[in-house]
């Protein structure tokens, strides 16, 4: 189910979580991030431009892994697959969402925030999960605690992850990568400051060590 996603997550380190308002920004933004060493990109389905942005990146940057985030239902899954996403990320998980994900070849990284949710996803075969909202749900101490009884699950924490705490997360044995938006803020994108985004991406790429 998640086999194709595992090597992507394990080499990612930091996954930029992108909110793209204008399709024209998609390619230069993705190119700036890839140039900085981040080639696993999550485009959240929070804007009307999101799916077209995924299509643009997938078409022109074949070496990048572009996925969709904020995947909430079966319709989002279908649209993600049609847009060329190579992975999908959800903030949580419902049975309907998981059932829909079972029917497609594009892997899902479902979200969990506590041990019960982690266990329920593990029962469905998800050994890789998003931990969200990471800081609000207990952060590094929570993931350390979960790692004892549920050591077979690895996480990508997102939500409140920053340059100041990313290395703390990445130092945990049950964290495979982290997601964040600091290297591609809405301000930098609006200014089309691709050089600064590349610089921040380069710094982020070094966090995994």
TrEMBL record:
Q: Which reaction does it catalyse?
A: 2-dehydro-3-deoxy-6-phospho-D-gluconate = D-glyceraldehyde 3-phosphate + pyruvate
From the UniProt record, give the pathway where this protein acts: Carbohydrate acid metabolism; 2-dehydro-3-deoxy-D-gluconate degradation; D-glyceraldehyde 3-phosphate and pyruvate from 2-dehydro-3-deoxy-D-gluconate: step 2/2
Q: Under which EC number(s) is this enzyme classified?
A: 4.1.2.14
Presence of keyword Repeat: no
Keyword Acyltransferase attached: no
Keyword list (alphabetical) reads:
Carbohydrate metabolism, Lyase
InterPro entries (alphabetical): Aldlse_KDPG_KHG, Aldolase_TIM, KDPG/KHG_AS_1
Identify the enzyme class: lyase
CDD domains to which the protein is assigned, alphabetical: KDPG_aldolase (cd00452)
Q: Which family does it belong to?
A: Belongs to the KHG/KDPG aldolase family.
Protein name (Swiss-Prot/TrEMBL): 2-dehydro-3-deoxy-phosphogluconate aldolase
Source organism of this protein record: Microbulbifer harenosus
